[in-house]
């Protein structure tokens, strides 16, 4: 609606945060509707009748604030893992180049 762009590293999405997801009958983790999360986690009813994006945004913010500490630790771990994998791939590529140059 506002067409604001946020850097991907600053985004927090309730649909992607594992502790707020639920397993379906096959065991696959699925996103839970914001309406259900707001009711279960915050005790707040949203999306009854007319849809209000402000109310949705407020509920998402309150969910984030409730889980902020653990959520940020999770984000930091994901970043560390991604960086290790990037370094490993880069190191492998560099090693392959060195070995190729020696042949």
Q: Give the termini separation.
A: 58 Å
Number of helices: 2
Report the principal-axis shape: elongated
Gyration radius from CA atoms, angstroms: 20 Å
Counting DSSP E segments of at least 2 residues, the number of strands comes to 2
Q: Sheet bearing the most strands, described?
A: 2 strands, antiparallel
Instruction: State the order of secondary-structure elements, H for helix, E for strand.
Output: EEHH
Mean pLDDT: 89
Strands of the largest sheet, in order across it? 1-2
Q: Which regions are unreliable across 5 or more consecutive residues at pLDDT < 50?
A: none
Helix content class = 55-70%
The proportion of residues in beta strands is under 5%
Which class of secondary structure composition applies to the elements?
mainly alpha
Please describe what this structure looks like.
With 103 residues, the protein is mainly alpha-helical. Helix content is 57%, strand content 4%. The protein is built from 2 helices and 2 strands, in the order ββαα. The protein has helices spanning 34-42, 53-102; strands at residues 22-23, 29-30. The chain has a two-stranded antiparallel sheet. Helix 1 crosses helix 2. The mean pLDDT is 89.
In short:
By secondary structure, the chain is mainly alpha-helical.
Task: Tell me the layout of helices and strands.
Blueprint: E1 22-23, E2 29-30, H1 34-42, H2 53-102
Helix pairs in contact: 1-2
Short descriptors:
103 residues, mainly alpha, 2 helices, 2 strands, elongated
